[in-house]
Write a structure and sequence with these properties.
InterPro entries: DAO (IPR023209), FAD-dep_OxRdtase (IPR006076). The chain is of the alpha/beta class and 461 residues long. It is built from 13 helices and 17 strands. 29% of the residues lie in helices and 20% in strands. The N terminus is likely disordered.
Length: 461
């Protein structure tokens, strides 16, 4: 059941169990309405330099009886979770079929390295976040991550080491958000939540934002509205290398392994082998295969990489986006400065496409480039990065969106509650939600180790 082959299979499901009645009971006392800032910005359970530190020294040293956590998966979710656990005094082992690669073989990069890694308030521009419960959680998770990444970006030394900096993120719309229709009401509600969330640099600039950013004001019938905010943007190759080294420096053990089966069926075997008190499933796209969850699927994405040094077109120093839920054909504009001299151009969101066989000549990639050229006219002169012109990967999508939840099933009716915590299905938002999800994972691990019954996400909201 454990081997070194790159394959994952789904095993038969296991009989579920009822949640505790008191967890299901509705609250009779209703709390007064809270503002977005109160809901998403006041209870950061992971706060940089308070209970988590970006430096190699742990905040809390492990004791002989400290719990040992086994994390399966070494993408941004697995590594940030490991980091947070280590700083709380846990012992941590990370197992993964692969690790962040920053060499010349671009095909070996993890999904976390392919990501655009521009912080976003949900739903993300790829338009894959539709579950109401998950969306409510995500609005909290993203703010925890916002401040964590911002603290790193604001420290000049850490910013260089980790590849994290702040940039202005601009969103454009073909309608005025004040128009009275369903789509505009939804978009206006999101903008209002962003404005009240506590993010820095928010400005509702209207149609003039296109002119300010050199965007074609007549794109797809005309840019009619727009707003901007200051957000973290992450050089994923640099950041994944930094995260891996940080987690190692804090004392984690890392082992290359591939898991092929439902974790519940091999939970005791894994816990015995690794002397683990609990397990975290942070395997991204394969999270469903390891949890008997058939609602997971790939959402294929691709990004062109062009030289952004100001030589062939005016240097782009801010992110420019039109999200999938804005355009009539669900196509995305996603233009993001990755480093000082590389600009990302995207994007696409192709559901249930497993193959990574896109090329520069593939029609969908050519259309993606043409959209960007029409949107930001200077890009028609952009030169592709000769070393790495096209990045492509599979976002870990899930029909119910992000799952941060304990294992609800049991092997049989007489068994104790599982000590597995799942954290997968982040779609295109892994970097944006990372620290917030890690904080909830730690709470769920504490519950599991204490022997409490698990509760579904719906009952914890």
């Amino acid at each position: 059941m454990l081997n070194n082959h790159h394959s994952f299979i789904n095993e038969h499901s296991v009989t579920g169990h009822l949640h505790r009645a008191e967890r299901q009971a509705a609250q009779t006392q209703q709390s007064p309405p809270r503002s977005p800032a109160e809901r998403y910005n006041t209870n950061h359970k992971l706060v940089m330099h308070e209970n988590i530190t970006p430096h190699p020294q742990r905040l809390v040293q492990p004791q002989a009886d400290s719990p040992h956590i086994l994390i399966v998966g070494a993408g941004v979710i697995g590594l940030v979770t490991a980091w947070a656990l280590l700083d709380k005094g846990y012992k941590v082992t990370v197992i993964s079929k692969g690790w962040a690669n920053v060499g010349q073989n671009h095909g070996d990069r993890l999904t976390s390295q392919i990501a655009g890694a521009l912080w976003e308030f949900p739903p993300a521009v790829c338009g894959s976040h539709v579950d109401a419960v998950s969306l409510e959680y995500s609005k909290h998770w993203c703010m925890t991550a916002y401040w964590a990444w911002k603290h790193i970006a604001d420290d000049a030394g850490l910013s260089r080491e980790a590849g994290v900096r702040m940039t202005q993120s601009n969103f454009f719309f073909p309608q005025r958000l004040s128009e009275d229709n369903t789509k505009c009401r939804k978009l206006l509600h999101k903008m209002t939540e962003i404005a009240g969330s506590g993010v820095e640099g928010f400005r509702h600039a209207g149609a003039k934002l296109a002119e300010e950013r050199g965007v074609n004001p007549k794109y797809e019938g005309g840019i009619m509205d727009g707003y901007e905010l200051s957000v973290p943007v992450i050089d994923t190759d640099q950041a994944m290398h930094w995260l891996t080294n940080l987690v190692l420096a804090k004392g984690a053990t890392m082992t290359t392994r591939t898991i092929e089966t439902d974790l519940l069926l091999i939970e005791q075997e894994l816990r015995t082998e690794f002397y683990a008190d609990a397990i975290v499933n942070a395997t991204g796209l394969h999270g469903g295969s390891l949890s008997g969850d058939d609602s997971c699927s790939p959402l294929r994405g691709a990004l062109l990489r062009v030289v952004n040094d100001g030589t062939t077109f005016p240097k782009v120093d801010a992110a420019l986006s039109i999200s999938a839920d804005v355009s009539e054909d669900n196509e995305i504009i996603f233009i993001v400065p990755r480093t000082d001299n590389i600009l990302l151009i995207g994007g696409i969101a192709q559901d249930n496409q497993w193959d990574l066989d896109l090329t520069l000549d593939t029609p969908v990639i050519q259309r993606m480039r043409q959209r960007a050229n029409e949107f930001l006219p200077g890009l028609k002169n952009a030169k592709l990065d000769p070393a790495y012109p096209l990045a492509q990967g599979l976002r870990p999508a899930r029909s119910k969106n992000v799952r941060v939840e304990r294992e609800l099933r049991r092997v049989d009716e007489s068994s104790e509650p599982s000590r597995i915590v799942h954290c997968y299905g982040h779609g295109g938002s892994g970097w944006s939600l990372s620290f917030g999800c890690a904080a909830d994972v730690i709470d769920l691990l504490d519950e599991a180790i204490q022997g409490e019954e698990p509760a579904a996400m719906d009952y914890r909201i």
